[in-house]
Design a protein that fits this description.
six-stranded parallel beta sheet; about 375 residues; Rossmann fold; alpha/beta; 13 helices; seven-stranded parallel beta sheet; 2 domains
Length: about 375
């Protein structure tokens, strides 16, 4: 009888399209039928399913998850683990921590992914969450895609460094065409600033709109915002103000945003909090310079030549690093070339596949947890 591939249970706070969800879809598509998957979205949202190939062995179970009923949820989660007996439980961020608690007396091997924090933990870690992670992740393998998170897990959560895995995100470099971008710089058209982001409060795209107005002044320039979310209405209203009206375009959600980067001359990120944003990697792969708030690992991600174009989380400061990139196509080209070269050296997705394969396909007997 042929042995079945490992069954992995993935729990996300949401399976809306975001960095962690896109990374999962990329991994699932790569490993194909070598793995089987169960995916639970705590909020029931599953829009990132569209990124998955049709031939993957994957289910989306619906559980009775009751907000505020922590003890009841823990019983239900543990029962599910015992009934389905996955080879591995993979949880994502704070919003799935109840599953780690339910598995405190281990039913299955556990890997926890931590990709970053919401706006409530922008300035400091919440003590209750620190202690919960310290206690219930102590026997788990913890995957961290950024050096900043690795430091927090070691120094603040005080997790065993031997259980921490630093795995930077990787991307399919072949999907991006920086050479075609170079031609656009010589076309004489107005420069285009692009951003790709979920329109949520912590992304602070309003800061980008205000910084764009300050940086561009009366000079020809456009801003393209790719993404959707609860902040869209307020941002569209802001875009009607003087200095912005007619210069800002909202595309809404785009299933495959890689094609959008070809129309950008520079990429901007205005977030209050990030760790290792996939959009910055995509911009680098597309041969774009990046003007960004100096958050998370962005400083370590971009090429050395690009680090002068990082700012504090302030409208005027972000405008100051956008302005010279808007004004000089030669600088844009030089920095974009350096970013593409660094992406090729450090962020090819094959490296990510190899590292994740070791986590996802490891047998329980080879795991540190047992």
């Amino acid at each position: 009888m042929t042995e079945q591939p490992p069954l992995i249970l993935h729990v996300f706070p949401t399976f809306a399209t975001g960095g962690a969800q896109v990374r999962f879809a990329t991994l699932a598509n790569h490993f194909g039928r070598r793995l089987r998957h169960l995916v639970i979205a705590m909020d029931g949202v599953q829009t990132c399913r569209k990124r998955l190939r049709d031939d993957i062995d994957i289910e989306f179970p619906i559980l009775d998850i009751r907000k505020g009923d922590t003890l009841g949820n823990l019983r239900r989660f543990r029962r599910f683990l015992r009934n389905r007996r996955p080879s591995l439980l993979v949880t994502s961020n704070w919003g799935s921590i109840e599953w780690a608690i339910a598995n405190a007396v281990p039913v299955v091997r556990h890997v926890h992914m931590e990709d970053g924090f919401g706006p409530e933990e922008r300035e400091r870690q919440i003590a209750r969450r620190v202690w919960t992670r310290r206690l219930f992740l102590a026997r788990s393998t913890v995957m961290l895609p950024s050096r900043t998170l690795l430091r927090i897990a070691t120094e603040t959560w005080r997790l065993n460094p031997g259980r921490l895995r630093y795995i930077p995100n990787g991307i399919d470099l072949d999907r991006f065409r920086p050479a075609e971008r170079a031609e656009a710089d010589r076309s004489g058209r107005e420069p285009v600033i692009g951003t790709v982001a979920a329109l949520r409060a912590e992304k602070n795209v309003g800061r980008l709109l205000r910084a764009f107005r300050l940086a561009a002044g009366d000079a020809p320039a456009r801003l393209v915002v790719v993404g959707d979310g609860p902040e869209r209405g307020a941002l569209e209203a802001l875009a009607q103000e003087p200095g912005l009206a007619g210069r800002v375009h909202f595309t809404g959600h785009v299933d495959a945003p890689h094609c959008m980067y070809e129309d950008f001359d520079l990429f901007a990120l205005s977030s209050d909090t990030e760790q290792m944003p996939l959009s910055v990697l995509e911009a680098m792969a597309a041969g774009l310079p990046v003007a960004s708030t100096d958050v998370g690992d962005v400083r370590f991600m971009v090429a050395r030549e690009n680090t002068a174009f990082l700012s504090s989380c302030d409208d005027a400061a972000l405008a100051e690093v956008i302005r010279p990139l808007l004004q000089d196509a030669g600088v844009r080209q030089r920095i974009g070339t350096a970013n593409r070269a660094k992406a090729e050296r450090e962020y090819d997705e094959q490296t990510m596949f190899h590292a994740w394969g070791g986590l996802l396909q490891a047998s329980p007997s080879s795991s540190a947890e047992h």
